[in-house]
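To the team - zinc ion complex, inputs and output below.
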Amino acid sequence: MQTAMDDDLMDDTDEPAFTPVKDAFRPAYALSADSAGPQCSASTDFCLFCEFANDGIVSEMKTLVHTLAADGKELPVITEALRRAYEDGVREETEWSPPGCPPVHAPEWTTASIRRHLLYSTEFSELFDVAIVQMFHSIIERQNASMIDSSTNMVVEEHRAAFTDTVKTFIKFKAHQDAIAKRRGGSKRG
Ligand SMILES: [Zn+2]
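Output:
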């Protein structure tokens, strides 16, 4: 006969156990070539900035990125400017030799590949910083949108706590950015 204690034990054993599964997780940034990651080295796509030395037209296109970033242009705008600059004259002159494959004339430099390099190469870290500021803006705006309980007009405490936590972290991030800009002798941004 089952007792109440037996029932409790049964309930405990009914709890789904966490079983680690192979490949359930992956690195945020792959350090070996055989694992997936967001960066150029983990992709088989053509990337102009990875393939060619930093001189001539490549150097000019990198200067274009820094200039547009300094003007506060957003990532999609800079990505599109690079894509157009590549298509307008550079692509036709480009020969690519992917490892183990025949050479490719005028390879496409896709928007995804350009964005991947801009964000993950660390050459243009200012772009990632701007993207983080935009993420904070977006999160703060959404947290604001759900701050008040419509039926009671009361502040939802859980949402307020999450909001102030976001703002605190954002202030720390901005202070860090300003300290870096000051050390470099640059101006404040954001
Ligand atoms: Zn690249």
